[in-house]
Amino acid sequence: MQLDTDGDAGEFARAKVNLALHITGRRADGYHLLDSLVVFPEIGDRLRLLPDTRPRSLALSGRFGPELQPAGPDNLVLRAIEALTSACGVPPLPMGIELEKSLPVASGIGGGSTDAAAALRLVPRALGLDLTRDQLLKLALSLGADVPVCLDQKAVRMSGIGEELHPVPSLPVTGIVLVNPLREVSTPAIFKSLTRRDNPPLPAFPDRFETCEALASWLEPCRNDMQAAAETLCPPITDVLAALKAEKGSLLSRMSGSGATCFALCRPHDAARIAADIEKSHPDWWVASSNRIQ
């Protein structure tokens, strides 16, 4: 099989940020139902094919690569590639792949899911496979409830257990700062700690968001229904939220997903300054910024 790798810089795997996350119910099988506005900033990991390397191997690089060592068969990137080649009836990928891990592990911004989704975009391109969107979505869902939303890397309303994706109004140009105190939070422990699982869904969306201030204003009465439990289990999250809220130009601060990553929305020109301020006062935290979300 001829691989198309010429001039391929790989695939960018954007962080998945829940600007609001409402827990609306629980299925009989234990899966929680949710209603969430998800966006993707220009912050993330990167996947690259490695010609002339051991087939199906995964090289890990980047700041957080060592935390995933050793890369066993349960790694979501390897599982995605295996599921893809198996479903398409093609031979296993005849080369290795590199994951440059820039996002913290287990941090509430979908690192593993967005990496798996990137593999589902990168490998078909390299192998010349023409998959329909429905085929990709089915493969994505087989890997985890958070993988389908990461395929398109565009703002979307996510409901059900994560498999129901609905369009949202175009978002204004908005800056974002992500901060993680580098403390892991157990998602199962948070779900176990929830005192209510039948919260109301997101409010009605407007026809459009004129400005980033309008987006923040609409989000203000929304929630992350996992945040209170996460702050109890991981008090540094409260410190991160306080630091973000105190920054001049911060329009809204909240935790993403199950934590511990938190975000602040801001005007695009304020993002880098806010990030620099946080890094200076808390050099032991992970901080990243983007002047655009999509």
TrEMBL record:
**So where does ATP get bound?**
104-114
The UniProt entry annotates the active site at 16, 146
| Residues annotated as domain GHMP kinase N-terminal | 75-151
In terms of Pfam families, this protein maps to: GHMP_kinases_C, GHMP_kinases_N
The terms under GO molecular function for this entry are:
4-(cytidine 5'-diphospho)-2-C-methyl-D-erythritol kinase activity; ATP binding
Q: Which gene encodes it?
A: ispE
| Alphabetic keyword roster | ATP-binding, Isoprene biosynthesis, Kinase, Nucleotide-binding, Transferase
A Gene Ontology biological process in which this protein takes part is: terpenoid biosynthetic process
Membrane-traversing stretches: none
Q: Which reaction does it catalyse?
A: 4-CDP-2-C-methyl-D-erythritol + ATP = 4-CDP-2-C-methyl-D-erythritol 2-phosphate + ADP + H(+)
Q: Per the similarity annotation, which family is this?
A: Belongs to the GHMP kinase family. IspE subfamily.
Please name the Gene3D superfamilies in this protein's record: 3.30.230.10, GHMP kinase, C-terminal domain
Asked whether the UniProt record includes Transferase among its keywords, one would answer yes
Against InterPro entries, the record matches this protein to:
GHMP_kinase_C_dom, GHMP_kinase_C_sf, GHMP_kinase_N_dom, IspE, Ribosomal_Su5_D2-typ_SF, Ribsml_uS5_D2-typ_fold_subgr
Described by its record, this protein's role is as follows: Catalyzes the phosphorylation of the position 2 hydroxy group of 4-diphosphocytidyl-2C-methyl-D-erythritol.
Q: What is its EC number?
A: 2.7.1.148
> Where does the GHMP kinase C-terminal domain lie?
222-280
Superkingdom classification of source: Bacteria
Q: What class of enzyme is it?
A: transferase
**Part of which pathway?**
Isoprenoid biosynthesis; isopentenyl diphosphate biosynthesis via DXP pathway; isopentenyl diphosphate from 1-deoxy-D-xylulose 5-phosphate: step 3/6
What name has this protein been given in UniProt?
4-diphosphocytidyl-2-C-methyl-D-erythritol kinase
